[in-house]
Structure formats: C-alpha cells, structure tokens
Fold each of these.
Amino acid sequence: MASSKHLFLFLISILFLLTLSSAEDAFVPYNFEVSYITASPLGVPQQVIAINDQFPGPTINVTTNNNVAVNVRNKLDESLLIHWSGIQQRRSSWQDGVLGTNCPIPPKWNWTYQFQVKDQIGSFFYFPSLHFQRAAGGFGGFIINNRPVISVPFDTPQGDIVVFIGDWYTRNHTDLRKDLDDGKDLGMPNGVLINGKGPYRYNDTLVPEGIDFEQLDVQPGKTYRLRVHNVGISTSLNFRIQNHNLLLAETEGSYTVQQNYTSLDIHVGQSYSFLVTMDQNASSDYYIVASARFVNESRWKRVTGVGILHYTNSKGKAKGPLPAGPDDQFDKTYSMNQARSIRWNVSASGARPNPQGSFRYGSINVTDIYVLKNKPLVKIDGKRRATLSGISYTNPATPLRLADQFKVKGVYKLDFPTKPLTGSPRIETSVINGSFRGFMEIILQNNDTKMHTYHLNGYAFFVVGMDFGDWSENSRGTYNKWDGIARSTAQVYPGAWTAVLVSLDNVGIWNLRTENLDSWYLGQETYIRVVNPEPTNKTELPIPDNALFCGALAKKQKQQIISSAASFNGNGLKLLFTLLNVLWFPV
C-alpha cells in the first residue's frame, strides 16, 4: 500500500518538474531498485547492496541544469537514504539524502528525489548514507556534462569510463557495524575492489583462483577519460596504470591545471578525472593498480586492487610484478606536495561561460572562522566515539531541516564551538551557525594518527593551504589565494592541517563530516545551518510535496499522503494516465 502511494507521489512529482522544465532544462528520470544480492568479489560469497541488480549501481549521466528525478524503491530490510556526494542541491537541501535533512525511506517504500543540477559540471558519485551501508555497496557514478555552448579545456575523448576503487571487507556491513558498536576496530580490509571486482591474478600466492577482475578495453592511439572515485571505508589508495601517464583534468566539478602523474593518491570520498592516451606498443596487457598508502607494504600486499588495461591489438596477458607505487610509509611529504600541486584552471569555463577564476576568492573578507580538531577515538559514557572539536554528533529522531520548517523545539543546539573544547568530550546535536552570504574559513586539524578526508555538502570549498604541525594565524601567510582548487572533499594528513574557504550562498542545512566511514558512524560530523533572514523561494525552494515525516512529526505522514492526492486536479490526472502509458516503475 505504501509503495503504491509513493509511486503515485512520484508521478505527481514528475508532473511538477515537467511544468518547471523548459527545452533547455531537460527532465531526466531514473528508477532505482535497491536490494541485496549475493556476490563474491573476493571469492567469498557475501551480501552486497545492488541497484537494479547491478554492483556498482548504474551511472546517472546528465547535463548542467537538467532536472533529475530518481525514484528509489527500498527492498532492503532496513531504512535507506541515498546521498549525492558533491551535488550541491542549490536551494534544496531537502534532497540531500542525509539524516539532517531527510527522514529515512522505510523498507518496501518508494520515494522520489527531485532536484536540478544547477550550474555544475564534473565527476561525482552517489551512495547509501545510513547504517554503514556504503561498506556493502549501493554506490554509482554521477556525471554532469557541460552544455554544448560551453567549451571544454580538452578534446572530446574516445570514451568516458567510470572507475570505482575502495577497500573491502568480506564481512557483511551489519557485522562491521556491530564491531564498531561493541568498541572494536574493523581491522585490516580483506582487499581492494576495482569496479566491484577483485584483483587480477598477478601473483599465484597472493590471489586465489576464480576471482573475477575488471578489464578496460581500449583502442590504441586513442585518449580516454577515466573518472576515478575512492568509495571505500577508510583506506587512502594510490592509483596508477602501468606505463601510462595520468593527465589530471578535473576533480569534483572543477577543471584543473593539466599535469601528468605516474600515480596519484586518492583518499576516501575523493573523485578525479584523468585523460589517458593509449600510446604504448601493446606487447602485453597493462596492470591497473589501486594500492593502500601509508601502511606496511609486506603486510598489505594482499590488500591491493588489480585490473587490466587491454588494447584491442594486445599481444598477450599482463605478467610480472606490479608497477611500483610511492615508497614512503613514514614520510607523507611526497603525498602532501602532490596534493598541493593540484590547482584550479582559472582560465577554463566551468558550468557557465565565464572563466572559473572570475570568482576571486582570495580578495573576499572572511566573516566566520572555525577550527575543527580531530583526535583519536575516545570513550564517552562508556561508548567508543569519534569527535570533532570535542563533540561527538548524535542524530536526532527529527531531521534538523524539518525541525526548522515546523518550529520543533529542542531538536538541536546552534552552538558548535569556533575553537576545540578544552573540557571533557561530549555527545550532542550541535550545529554550526553559518551567516548567509558570509565567507567562512575552516581549519581542519588532524591530531589523529591516520589519514582523514572531510566533505561538505551543498558547496565546493577552496583548498587554500595544508601543512604539518598545528595551524596558527601565521599559517595564513602560506595560503594560495589565486588558484586553490575548488572541490567538496579535502584530505588532512595525520599530525597536519588543511584550510578551506567557502562562500555561504546556498541556503539550507549542510552536512560537514569525515568521509572515513568508521569515524563518521561513530559521530565525527556536524552541520552548517545557513538561513536567509528574509525567506524567499529565490534562495530556498519550498518543502517538497512528497516529504517524508518522522520523529516528532511522524503523525504528519498520513496527512501528507492524503492532502497530496486531494490536491491533484483533473488535468493532472489526464497527464498522469499518459505518463503511465509511457513509464513503468515496478512497485
């Protein structure tokens, strides 16, 4: 019953979007059926989350300013939200797919995300944001292409290939979650997957027989665009292709100054686009490698992702040792210098025809400063927790954005500290009070012993500095105020800091978190609340008609379904029946 009602609301949403869409801003529908399948990526049968029976899930491929509707049917045995990592959801945090903005989709329910990919281009991905589910899959690519009238700073490649890399456990996500709840570490992963598949058998001792591996088929002499995403749990990976240069061209929606790398460190949650020219003699196939960084190489050899690059005129299989990655387990200077070398292409057009560098972020006065410090896990009230500036975040039953909309009191506190707490750590729902149209400086200080990456929803921030040691006000003298890369995910090395600047022009409530899934699950996150003091639909869209309700607002759910159906007029029904003849979404 609930599923059919949500199909009905999905079609209402289509009609609404069609009325808003012009020929220029096309409407693009997708249907996601999220379910468990049994797969054996590392040779061990296990429960994996698939979308439309695919692991990884299908790629969403749209163009700047398209209107997107994704009807999600939850066939899992637990609630679900899909988050669109890096998609800024301009004016609509309602569609962000995290617990601060959305009530979960219950099992056996349909719910439809509907949003415009406004003024964005680039390489992104989506994933399930609840219950540690990303450790079981459920992720897929999200490509936003330039409009034809906007020039791209490179020739059209022969092909566009999405590559997912990430550490992987053979235990179910529910078992991993239980380990964290019980205060245990997850331990070393069982392997690294490339596009949901295990390693090519490059070594008979390390890789067992019968494992399916990823193979990319290419034509000699052609150039391909590889969009590489680290969708893992907590392991930084070095990505490389034997005997081939990786020409970096874009990261998370920004065109970069084009530079060649023989390999690049890709940290959890990060995305990069490389142009790779097939300029070798194809005497054999070539290894594609994703190997763990800053670890004991001898212990972690089996935790290496290996795929195959296969030319159509290849003369044989890949053989011999893997191409070597950086050898600097205890010295992260090489990796940091590599990260600093990634710069914004200020002369290239982005989603609009004006150059990316026309936004001169270095000359804007900062209005808010937050120093966010990460430390190793601590015990609070007998539970092992992760903290940010001494606060371990806990999600309330009522999403923050819904609490604001309906003036529900006591759901959260708007008191996140600008500097780390000096007293005992505590568990709270504490939120950053952002100033609408302010310019915020965020210093991410990592006093943990492991790498972290941090992600901000709703925005791209400018990565202006990073260094080892503790940040101080004198550190601003090292900032890049001209061509620091604009992206949504930045790495912070252990014992080091990263500084970012962000223009708070997108109204809503936006998640700021570590992308390391274990620490995120244990509370290392907060939200930035950005409110226009003079509310208008020009800065934030109204609450969607199909909004789900929970927590203190759970009783509104039935009322919402009835009122949506009652407001559907005769003309809408006529168009609905037309749509039913064209579209079929199983319920």
Amino acid sequence: MAKTNSFCWGCSALLFLCLVGFFSTPAKAALKTYQFDVQVKNVSRLCHSKPIVTVNGMFPGPTVYAREGDTLLVNVTNHAQYNMSIHWHGLKQYRNGWADGPAYITQCPIKTGHSYTYNITITGQRGTLWWHAHIFWLRATVYGAIVILPKQGTGFPFLQPYKEANIVLGEWWNNDVEEVVKHGNKLGLPPNMSDAHTINGKPGPLFPCSEKHTYALEVEQGKTYLLRIINAALNDELFFAIAGHNLTVVEIDAVYTKPFTSQAILIAPGQTTNVLVQANQAPGRYFMAARPFMDAPVSIDNKTATGILQYKGIPNTVQPVLPQLPALNDTAFALSFNAKLRSLNTAQFPASVPLKVDRHLFYTIGLGINQCTTCLNGTQLTASLNNITFVMPQIGLLQAHYFNTKGVFTTDFPDRPLTPFNYTGAPLTANLGTKLGTRLSKLAFNSTVELVLQDTNLLTVESHPFHLHGYNFFVVGTGVGNFDPKKDPAKYNLVDPPERNTIGVPTGGWVAIRFRADNPGVWFMHCHLELHTSWGLKTAFVVENGKDSDHSVLPPPTDLPPC
C-alpha cells in the first residue's frame, strides 16, 4: 500500500502549546482574530481535478481555536464568484444574530470583492462545534472545526487525553456541486448523489487514485486520545468506527455527556461527537471508517470513507483491518445509540430543563410535489413544515425585524398542522401540494417552549436532522409512530436529557425538544439535509426583546453586508 499522509502530532502539540501560551493569562478573556479568504483552488480527488471554493486554500478549512469566554473576530473576504456567508454552527450568539451567518436570515451575503467581520463572544460554551458556508450548497467544501477549550485552569470532566485530533466527515462530488444542483432543479428532482465520503477531506484507499488521499493518525501504545468528530456531510447520517477499538462518548454538540462506550457511533449532518479512544490493541494499522445510515426507501451514496489509526513504529506496508460498521438500515442500532445519550447533569454542568411549558408547538415534516413552470416535467419535489414550504426573502429577516420593515415576513406560522391526519400510516401519494410563504413564529422573551417534530409518510418517511440556530435544546422524548400527547409526555426524561443544537427526527417517528427563548432575535430552524433545506424544509423563530437594552438585540455592525 502506498504511503499515506500522516497526521503531524508534533505540529499539533506545538500548536497546542502556542495556544496554551496565548491563553495563559488567568481569568482574562482573549481577543482572537482570524482572516478567512474565500478563494477558488484546484483540488484533485478520485482521479478528478476541479476548482472548489475554499477558505485560505484549505480543504477542509482552518480550525478556529478559542477558549470559553474569548471573543473571536473573523474577517471574511470573498474572492470567489459566488456570494458567501459563514455560519458558526452551535455558537449561541447571545443578542447578536448579526454574527450567526445564514444568508437572508440574519444577513445578506458577502458579495465578491467584499468583506465582513463576524464578531463572536463565546459565553458558557466549551467543546467541539464547526463553521460552514450557509448559502447555496457551498458548504460541500467550505467548512472547518471550531475547538473551544475550557477556561484556563479548568480541565475536562473525564480522563485528560494524551493528545487530540479533529475528524471531520464530509462528502465529495466529482462535478461542480452548484452545477449538479442546478441540473436537479431543472428536472424538479434531487441532484445526483455524492461520489464519495471523506475523512478530513480525504476519501481513503477504497476509492480510485486515493491511497495518497488518506488521513492517518499516529498513536502510541497505551495512550488515550480525544477525537473531535464532526459530520459536515450535506445529506448523509453516518456511522463511524475504528477497527478493534471502542469509542467512549463524552460530549455531543459541545455539551458534556455521561460517558458510555460503543463499538460505533451514529452522527447526523450538523452534529459533533467527542470520543475517547485508548490505543490498547496490538500495535498495527487499523481502519477508521464512515458509512451512511438510511432506513427509508431513499437512494443514497453508500460508499465507505476510510482513514488509518497507525501505531507508532508500524510500517505502512502492514495491511489495515476494516471495522464492523452497523448495516446501512440498522434502525435498532440508531435508536439504541441515541437512547444512551444523557447530559452530565452535575453541579458544575447542570441540565436546566424547563419543567413548566408556556408554549406547545407541534410541527409535521413532509415531502410534497408542487407545480413548476420552469421544470422539465412541470412539477418539482418540495418539503414543508405544517404543509408550509418556506420562501427565502430578498433581505435579511433580522434586519427586517430590527428595523420593522413591513412586507418581508409574517408571524402567523401555525403552532400545529391545520389538518391533522394519520402522520405515519400508509404512504400518502395524492394531494401533495404545499402552501408557500415566509411565515415565522413569534416567541415571547424568556418563555419556555416545547416543540414536537413529527415525521410523516407524505411520499415517504425519512430521518431528518433538525438544527436550531441561537440555542441549545433538551431532547426530552422521542419515539416511533405518531406522537400521543396524552401518553408520551409521561415518558419524558426531564432529569438528564441530552442537550444539543441538532437532533435527528427518527424515520416515521417524532422527537420532543424544550428550550427557554432567552436569546432575542430571528433564529433559523431547518433540516440539516441540504437537499431538504433547499426544498423549503425550514422556518424561523422571532424571539421578542426583553424589558431592557441588556435583553434586546444588539444594534447591527457598521460593516453588515448590504442587500
């Protein structure tokens, strides 16, 4: 086997020492500045070379390092031909939606030749998050990790690892992704699926021309490593495992969990999972692998990305062993894995679950078919919440809200579907049209919200990972079939439920989340499958201001991109 690209632990250690030095002033928050140059670069994968949009010519993009309490200033300069915006996925951006990043929700995009500085204060968060483009499908190549270290002098609530590494899972298309999407839209159908999955931008040796495009992680016998795993794929939930090595889950979406050990993990697009791995096997080379989970009758790129866990001193000629990943449609593993996730819920890291609910919301998730005069067959596939397909505005919703601009959006998004039905019964294939609108839901400041997301069998059932901007939420309940408001709440976990920013709604099932609406602004909520987002499976919450200026949306920055 050809030589692989080894991970440079020395570089990592040096970077870490530099960071520790940078942050070593006790109890003093640092100001970290980053320059993101959005530029096109030729990249070769799978025997194909193509120009891709990158940040600083890197694929994946640079890791953003900070400590809890720091302020980040990230100046994004757009040299590419596309409009650009960057979302800082999972950062709460208190009162500061201007730095959240989704195009036409909290800002208009950064045009070619222009810049915008994202001013982000990290409050009460530590762990692994990530950043990505939030316009068109550009996050196919424009993404990277965010590593938030604990405050100086504060350790992890688990065994201190010897070293750590980022494992960013993604997808690769041989053709220009934006052209692939345009072609699909012309047909009114899904675009062609990806040609490969990747680990840190590399597909691994199971793909053609890819032995040199293989991520390798060198480990020392007897040491413990922290892997920060991110699913940056556009449309695929992924299983991840390392041959011969158990994974101990200690954090999800930058929130500590009660540790548990598993042979594999399941991670949906948008989610992060931190695991501890002990290098306790016979020294050798072991494949790490990522492959999709799909338990619905939907076409998917079922190819396996691989990287290599390589014990120090073992030559590259040793053939790696492949891990046993769960089967493509292993629903039982998916449900069982997610059921094990629990918040740490200690005095230092409490799970402050809202016990009293001010507002009950029930949103159905559906696919549909609408008329389309520009599509070749006259119709197009679409998606909706409560049968409403979201229409993107031409100016940022946050600007329209802040400046009270009329005619941009309404706040009449229904709290529940207007026509209840047997949501997860036999497939429904008639009357699949949806209503179109830029309709939002208004939430009173500091009110407590319970939202039940219900999958439906409109066309087909399918798992949908939903992401809420500006907030974490508690996943208090989940189940298969139709949500029963009389019986299911009795089974809620209100003590130590997992706290996250992105949650998979199970195929043909439901999930119940709770959060306190204490972050004023306009906050996007959408399916993190890029296909479904582009079809309209999204909405936003308008969270009202509190009683004083300290609990109100901050004024917009002077360099906010014009519309």
Amino acid sequence: MVNVKGGTRPPWVGLGAAVWLQIASGNAYNFPLYSHSLKSVLGFNQQQLTMLGVANDIGENVGLIPGLVCNKFPPWVVLLIGSFSCFFGYGVLWLSLSQTVQNLPYWMLWIALCVATNSSAWFSTTVLVTNMRNFPLSRGTVAGILKGYGGLSAAVYTEVYSALLRNSSSKLLLFLALGVPALSLLMMYFIRPCTPSLGEDSSESYHFLFVQVASIVLGVYVLTTTILEDVFSLNVLVSYTLLIIMVVLLMAPLAIPVKMTFYPSNRGKLGVSDVSVQDNSSAENSEPLLTPLSSSANLGSFQEGDEISEVDMLLAEGEGAVKKKRRPRRGEDFKFTEAMVKADFWLLFLVYFFGVGSGVTVLNNLAQIGIAQGLHDTKILLSLFSFCNFVGRLGGGVISEYFVRLKAVPRTVWMTCTQVVMIITYLLFASALNGTLYAATALLGVCYGVQFTTMVPTASELFGLKHFGIIFNFMSLGNPLGAYLFSGLLAGYLYDNEAAKQHSATCLGPDCFRVTFLILAGVCGLGTVLSIVLTMRIRPVYQMLYAGGSFRLPQSSSH
C-alpha cells in the first residue's frame, strides 16, 4: 500500500517539484541540438540519422512498463529507474561522440539512445499520474500545466546549451548524463500521493492561474533570450545572468506552498473540521448491524493496488459491500484489457497517432527542413517550435477545461480543429513560399501541443484514473509509431533520394520534403474525420460527467 500524504500543502509542493521533472523529461527534445554532430563526427547519412530519431521517439514514448510499475510501487522507485536509464543511455552517447570510446557499432548507439530517452517516459509518467490523482477535479488544467512545461523544455535546454555549454554537443550529452539524474534524485522526495480534494475550492483556481501565468512568463523569457543570443554576441557574464533568471522563473510554482505556509487558510481548517463532524454524525446514524470485514475496506481506491483475491471479492459481495462484478461503463475505472476492446479507445489512439505522428516527423527533421530552405542557424526555429508547442499544450488544457465545464464540450473537439489547421500548415511547408517557414513552424508547434494536452485528460475521463498510467502510455505509442512510419521510412528515404539527385550529402531546395508534407496533409485529413466520429460518440459521456458544470466522480467506478 502506497503511503498517502495528507494536508492541502503537499500536493502543491509536489506540483512545484513536478515542473522541474517535467522539464527534465523533455531531454528527448534535444536530439536536433546534437544530431548534426552525430552525422558529422560519426559519418552517418540522413537515413541513419533519421532512424536514430526514431530511436529517440521510441524511447521517449514507450512507457508501458513505467505505467505498470507506477501502479505497484511508490513514485520514488519509478524516478530512480528513470535516473539510471538517463545516466547509462546518454553516457554511452557521450563516450562515442567525444571519441573517448571509438568505433561503437551503430546498433549499440541506437539502443543507447532508446534507453536514454526512455527516462522521459519514467519521469513524465510519475509526475503526470501522481498529480492527476492529487487533483482529480482539475485534470485538464493539471495536464495542460505539466505538458506545457514539458513542451517548453526544449527551449530551456536550448538556453542551457547556448549560455552554459557554449553550443557544445558533447558537453550537452554529458550534462544530460549527469545533471538530469541528479535533479531527479533531488526532487523524488517531493513527488508523492496526497489526499485529493473532492470539493470546489476558489483558492485552487487562483493557484492554478498563478502557475499558468508563471509558465507563460517563462516561455516568453526563454524565447526572447534565445533570439537575443542569436542576434547579439553576449559575453559570458550576461549569459550566466540570463540563465540564473530562468532558474528563478522555474521556481515560481513553489511560491504557492510557501504562501500557504506563512498565510494558512482558516477556511480550509474549518472545512476539514466540519466534514469530520458530519462524517461522525452520519456514521452514528447509519451504523450497520454487522461490521464489514476488512477485506472490503479499500476496494476501488486508485491510490492503492488492485490485487484483490477472488475470495475477498466474494466475501465483500456477500456482505453487500460491493455490487456483483460487472463491466465498467465509460467514465468509470477500466482495466487496460477492458479498455482495449472499446471502439473509443482505438479511435482516440488513431486520432492521436495521426496528429502527433505527423508532427514529430517535422520536429525530427526540423534542422534539415530549415537548411533545405536556406536557413543556416536552426536554433531559433527549434526555440520557436518549442515555445509554440508550450502555448498549445498550456492553452489546450485551459480552453478545453473551460468549455467542458461551460457546455460539456468533449475535449476531442480541439483535436479536430487543430488537425484541420495542421493540414493547412503542411501545405504551407510544401509550398516553401518566402516568409512562410517561421509561420508554419509556429502553427505546427501550437497544434502539436494541443494533441498532447487533449489526449491525456480525455483518456482519464473515458477510462478512469486507476489504470491511467498504462492506458496513457499505450496512447503515447502513437508518437514513435508515427516517427517510424512517417519520418524513418518516408521522410528520410525521400530526402536521401533527392540528395542523390543533387549529388550531395545535404539536400537543398523545396523538393527535399515536398512530397512528405503533402502525404502528411492527407494523414491529418483522415485524422480529422476520425476525430469527428469520436467526438460524436463520447458526447453523452461528457454530458454525464459535467452535467452540473464541474466534474462528477462516477457513482460506481470500482470493479
């Protein structure tokens, strides 16, 4: 049984620590920062480099094992495994790129990159599952905040890469191998399950608003400093000062538990007291004739494991503690195997696959796309994508949460809208018109971010929080699957063919990726149709869950 921390302050301490770990979990976004060095130092062609990009995405998104482990063990165990994964994986890549160890085989580097970026799955699964359980009534907001910081991590790493590491790819890999595990070890104590608040609290909404504003300020700051460092030649002292300010902004969410420490809420104390009095009086008035056995005391709690023997279940049914076992309805807690036989499960997976699978293809090839269109320094392009990805993730969570509470609008509506915009964006990329590269990158970043932050709460609302870790991570497989099909097999192959026609290792001109973009536009067209179908199917579920303007926990979600 996982030890659950009580009180109103610990969940906010955990959320503040989760922000740092969510930034750390974005280590996979650094691939464009050192991919060119892998190509030049180790002599890889574009298709080999693209397949390393696939390894990067597979490691980042294959989180089925973390999803299972987070239901069986406390969060610190999951974070510890992620730390070891990060250390060994990036350590091998650093040994190869720095030429400390020479002639490591390609397959070993491929596996090392998978292991390294798989730390992202361990980190993000831990913080997302723990915090969504700590704030079950604000799932969209929490998912938007955490996924938003995750999307912003690429810009944060770019700032560290430029200011602290002086654009050195080998130093970046060493930083990832040592710095990220150290951060995880430092923060793991604060990421813990807490007693969730199941009542509406006005102060909670203000606290969330503060974190959202702080993240926006951080995003604007990081994008601005990246542009300044690219346009002007800043000295070391100025660069370090800008880096320190960024670290202070990252600590902003911790201001909430500090404020709660120095200015405790009397209303919160009275609320707890009143609830306990009411609970005691109701317990006295409805005391059962027969005392239930302890075997049924903790059935159905998503804070605990689901290891219940058949004998205990039969005893509990006989005592009337639980109803006879039945298949769950949408909105209740599903086991993974129960969710997999539902049409909505696969529709959500396919919609997410088409959206993020096409988007990650552009992200993995962003440096080459920029060079092909005549842009020599692609750092600004990566920072722009990262910032807009952050805006999409944060904004998607806020907007979907607002409309789902106002009119019970299914969150998948926003997946539909953004995939329509993605069709237009890919056509802009394919046209290669002057001045459209930055606009197309920004639009794609926003739409790509919305896919993430919409899928996460949708999966939890349709299939429950009890087994959310493994369900969410299975959905996340859409990312590496899309990277393999659309980036590894399609984009890399077409790019190398076009480069061969130019008798060069580097392809230049709009034809390098034009066919790829047209195919991706068609893929998002199919995703749009499926998203409309899914939205129509799950609309009754949202009308049930948000009938009163706020989320209602299902009456029977244990089984």
Amino acid sequence: MRVAREPIMARPLLKIHRYFRCKPVHFFSFILLYLTAGSLVFLHSGFSSDTSTTGASRSVRDPLISEGGGGAGGGSSTSDGLGLLGRVFKETRRAPQRFGPPWMKKNRAQDVPEWAGRGVDHHTRSHGAKGKTTKGMDDGREQTVHAETSSSKYIGCYVDDTQKRALRGVSFFDYKKMTVFRCQDNCAERGYLYAGLEFGAECYCGHKIQAPNVSESECNMECKGEKSNLCGGPKRLSIYRLELSQESARRYGSAIFKGCFKRPDNVTLALPASAVIKNMSVDKCVDMCTEKEFSLAALAGEKCHCGFPTPLFTLHDHEDEELCLQRCAGEDFESCGNIDFFVVYQTQVQDNRCLDRRFLPSRTSGTVALASFPGAGNTWARHLIELATGWELLSYYFDGSLYNKGFKGERDHWRSGRTICIKTHESGRKEIEAFDASILMIRNPYKALMAEFNRKYGGHIGFASQAHWRGTEWPEFVKNYAPWWASHTLDWLKYGKKVQVVHFEDLKRDLFSRLKGMIIFLGLEVSEDRLLCVEGQKDGNFKRSGLRKLEYDPYTAEMRATIDGLIRTVDTALRKRNLSGVPEDYRPR
C-alpha cells in the first residue's frame, strides 16, 4: 500500500508547528514580537494621517496673538504686549491644524515661506475684490462676514519694515490656512481700523498706516488658505480698511481707545491728575496715568489728564473725531487732542469701585428670578448686576466652574434668601410660580442657540469642535432647542407674576440705562459711579474670543424657516402684553 506524501508547501509549516509545540516559550515570544510590530505600524500610520486630515475632523485652537511681532525675515514681539487681551503669540514652530470649511483647499507648502518669485498671474487672482466692499472670500466662494466685521475695502499695497511696522497693533500667523476673511475678522474683533496681509500667511492689525504705498505688482503672493486672493508679498502688505460696529473697541498697544470728548466743565475735579509732557505721545500719557493708577488717560495737546469715569465725565457724549485731530508732538501718526476736545484711552488699571460683593446680611421674604433661555446672556447679566449693586446673586443650580470664577452664590441654595436675585433657566408653570417677580432676558435665537451649543460642547468660554458642527449633533440640537427658546419666553410671560423683559441686544447697545432700569426693578438704590465702573469692566471672564467663530452659516434653509416662525410667535406674544416686540436685528439674520 502506497503512503500518501505530504504536499511540498505544507512541509515548512509543519516543521514550524512541531518546533513551537516542542518549545512553547518561543511561540509566545514570536506572538509578542508580532503584536509589537503591528502596534508600531498602526501608530506610525496614525501620526502620518495627522498632517493630512482636514480641520473638520477635530478641534484645534487658533494661534494666540502677539503685539507688533516679527514676520517674514525676522523681528520680535514688542515690549508693550497685548495688555488687556492678555495673550502673546510668536510663530516659532510648525503651524498646527486649523479649523476651516471643507471648500478651503489644503495647502501642503512648507511652513518656512519661499522667497523666490512665483510669476503670479494678476488676471486670475484678486485682492479680495479690489476696491469693492467685500464679504469675505474663501477659494472663490462668497461668505457672509460676521456682524462685528460688517464689511471692508481694499485700499492698496504698502511697505512693511520688520523694525518699524506699517500696522502696529496685534498680529498672528498661519502658514497653512491664512485667508483675507480670517485676517479681517480677527482685526475687526479687536476693534482695529485696518487689516493687512503679508507673505501669504501673516496678518497685522492697526489704527493707522505708518508706511508709504507701492505698486500693486509688489503684493503678488497668494494666500496660503485661498489661491483666489493675494496676501501681500515679501515685506509688502495688502491692506484693507474695516467698517467696525459701535461695540468694537479700538486699541493702541495695551490701551483701549474710547473716543473724542469735550473738555469737562470742571476738569480738575473730573480728572484730578494732570501734567504737561514734552514731546507728547499716546504712550507717554497712558504710561503716566497707569503709573498713577487711573483707568482713564485724556490727551489735551501737550497736557495729559488722568482719572476715572464719573458723573462729571461719563464718556457717554462722543464728539466727532475730527474735533480732536491735532498731531502729537512726539508721534507723527496719532492725534493728541487739544485744550477743548480730549482724546481718551482706557488704561490697564482696574477700576476697583465696583468690585466688592457680599451676601445680604438678612433673609429676604421675596424671590426674584433672573430668567433666560440658555445662551441668552444670563451669566453676563448676573455679572453686571453683581458689579452694579455689590450683592452676590444665587443660582437655581450649582456650577463649580462658575463658583471657581468668582460667582460665590453658586454655593448657596437658591431658597436661602441671602440674595436679591436668582439665576435660572427653568420654564414650566410650577417652577415659574415659585418666584414673586422676574427679569426675563431674551436674545436673538440664532445667536443664543450657537452660544449654548458652544457651551454644551466647549464650556463657558470654549467652542464646540468643527466635528460637532458638521456632525449630527448640531441639527439634532437645533431641532430640540429651538422650540424651547420660544416656549421658555411664552411660559414666563404667561405664568410670571411680575415680569420685566430685557433684550440682550438692547443691554449691549445701551448698558448704562438698561442696567439702571434693572436695578430699579429690583428695588435698589442706583449708584452712578458703580454703573460707570461697570461699563469699563462689562465683559468679565465669560466673553468668548472671536478667533474661532465659524466662517460659514450653520443654519439650513429648513432651520431658518422654523426659527423665523418661532420669532414671529414670540414677537406677537410680547406685543399682546403691550411690550415692544423683538428687536429688528432678529429678522433678517
């Protein structure tokens, strides 16, 4: 009988099998080495994909900001810093992944820019619609500019010296995804009048252009994040003039420009410290008032006055800036005012007149709610009321992050009676009827929904990731929360015993008088000095930076149709109670 022979290919496998069966230790060593090698391959592929994945896949912070900083060819951050913004940035490493809509093409250029010319075709690229009002372009697609930016106009190509910048405000760099829109938005967010782009990737902000203009052909480098637009060149800036909203704060170094104001009747009483300064400049006056620990620096020609906002000098009556146009003796490009009209800046000095806060010494009999839909400015309004009155406000909830930020009322039970007002987002008859009166905050639902979505996925001053906005979370959130925005207001109007309606937008627009009305509603005495102090510190610790605002509209046509219908419902309910309807800027968005 003939014995079947083993197939030739099976012999090596059989030998390996017999070997490991006889020596199991070798078998387990082999398995361990195999798994280790597989893990290394997996990790390597993961790191490699980090450099090519789009911004939509994860959340990464934008670069921080520097004052004056160095750009292409060297330079360093100025000694002034950014002061009130408290952020310093200088590009020293490879730029991290940034957010960006999917139509922004990936630029695989190296972080160190090329200095060689590229032979740019000026017929196929633009300066973001040169000489026209722009709405922000990304790869040829028009986008709606944020309300704070409004619009801009390209004005020309200018020289930029690393030792003496043409625009001397804040700056930031992104050597992969810089766009005209992004630079404009960041500068407008900080209240600057001009935004300039250099070397395809660098953004500079300023109030004045302190350099000569040159031929347009010298601004010939395409933007790193959009090939359809030009972003300056080597030591050349493509500069835009921005149209700022009234709420934007213009800055000079670490100081905030407040405006041009008429000389107060009793200047010695209104601004108690003053001095004549040789070769006057904004820096010298601001430095003097900062050293003397005053929050205001007022330039009047060769004289510098220092003080605080008071009923004698409220900073409410702005004058035309042309009345203050007088060149500083020690500075060619800034105005120093004159004997009749002062140029005023807010220094870094903190006004301490409204910082003391305490609990009520005895229990109150009534309860007043500070009610709002989440994301409608409740925490901000609470901050304002605490500063204006000196009393701690309690909360219907306990939020440890708010407690750690200074809201000590988070620790007390809301029925303890040790407060003048209680923060709540509750709705429903039972919860509302537990309060004797209420201040009802209402905000544009388009803004409130986005603010609450950011808080839910990013914290009180953080941001939701791009993946959350692009994923299923955002549509589901709008579906569930938009009806709540309307029902929250309708419930408080229906079941509230005594309701004062305050629109978030009105409070931002006219803080002094609206906050004064809220304090009177609470039955408290108004201190105008405290209210003026609040105006200088209105943002507190809970204002989100504009660095990571979405560069596209997240609302679909179907979402807008639903929300517009809810706005009309709330507007009708308000008018039926003989109240003013929703503000005009709710519609159209």
